[in-house]
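[step 3/7] fold_predict: job queued, chain A
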Amino acid sequence: MKRWAGLVIAALMVAGSRSGDAAIRITNDRGGSIGKYIYKYERLRASGQRVIIDGFCASACTIVLATLPSERICVTSRAELAFHAAWDFGPRGRAVTNAGATRMMYLMYPAPVRRWIAHRGGLTPRTIFLRGNPLHAMYRACPS
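[step 4/7] structure written:
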């Protein structure tokens, strides 16, 4: 019985260590509700998993940069991040900028990302794209 318990404990320890070694791949995420992404990425941060940005990551998806330490994020040559002001549905279902949520998101980003955004006029209804050399200057390339 002791041997069986020891094997179960060893298996659980190995399984637990693997979850921290696994990586989540972002390839085509158009974003969504800020709150849902904060919750999702807080759980991801607690899991110890790494993130590979290997494609489009827009809007609330970019909160991954604010939630995970940069050493747990890598980017491929296909990585592309899209930033814009936060918005709510207003009268007649039209998008209305939410200044408070926009400021909150902006302040969450790491300093290099904030500088890049500020240099392009800040978070506005117009979408700005971070990719290529500017992105690779901020985040490490994923191992091949």
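[step 5/7] annotate
Residues 1-20 have pLDDT under 50 and may be disordered.
Helices lie at 2-21, 34-47, 64-67, 99-108, 111-119, 132-138.
exit 0
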